[in-house]
């Protein structure tokens, strides 16, 4: 096995690719019939924070944690939002459409990993948005997504 395998973030085009993705995605959200209410009053820096988070998750620079973010911090943003399955699916579908529009790689290997993370992350967000969700352990590591499957059940 070669040590020259790029991270998913490198393959995607680095932080700039995720910044293009999230800027285009969140520009569409205010007009989206299902997602607009979820993101009403969104912080103007939200797209940049999500781009930094995704870049880090996919093996890129750790700008998200270096600016004070953490996995527990991201989880906390979803508390008491009561996200629905319809909203979760709409978020994933719009993100995938936007990935195509901004030119993220569409090779099967990258897209399998990318879709895998979107499914995992949005399902976790939905769980953490419901009443009674427990705060994440502040010492929990950031998710780290790579080319292969994530492994067994993850407690987070």
Automatic annotation (TrEMBL):
Residues annotated as binding heme: 49, 73
Entry keyword annotation includes Lipid biosynthesis: no
Short name of one Pfam family: Bac_globin
Organism: Asticcacaulis biprosthecium C19
Protein name: Bacterial-like globin family protein
An example molecular function term from Gene Ontology annotations: heme binding
Low complexity bias (residue ranges): 133-148
Domain of life: Bacteria
Segments of this protein annotated with the region Disordered: 130-156
Keywords recorded for this protein, A-Z: Heme, Iron, Metal-binding, Transport
Keyword Transferase: no
CDD domains, alphabetized: TrHb2_O-like
């Amino acid at each position: 096995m070669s040590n020259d395998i790029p991270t998913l973030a490198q393959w995607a085009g680095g932080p700039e690719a995720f910044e293009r993705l999230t800027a285009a995605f969140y520009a569409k959200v205010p007009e989206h019939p299902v997602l607009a209410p979820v993101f009403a009053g969104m912080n103007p820096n939200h797209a940049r924070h999500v781009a930094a988070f995704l870049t880090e998750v996919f093996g890129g620079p750790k700008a998200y944690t270096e600016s004070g973010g953490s996995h527990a911090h991201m989880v906390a943003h979803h508390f008491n939002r009561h996200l629905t399955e319809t909203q979760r699916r709409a978020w994933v579908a719009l993100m995938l459409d936007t990935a195509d529009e901004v030119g993220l790689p569409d090779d099967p290997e990258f897209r399998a990993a990318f879709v895998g993370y979107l499914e995992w992350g949005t399902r976790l967000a939905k769980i953490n948005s419901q009443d009674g969700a427990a705060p994440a352990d502040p010492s929990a590591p950031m998710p780290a997504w790579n080319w292969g499957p994530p492994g067994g059940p993850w407690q987070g």
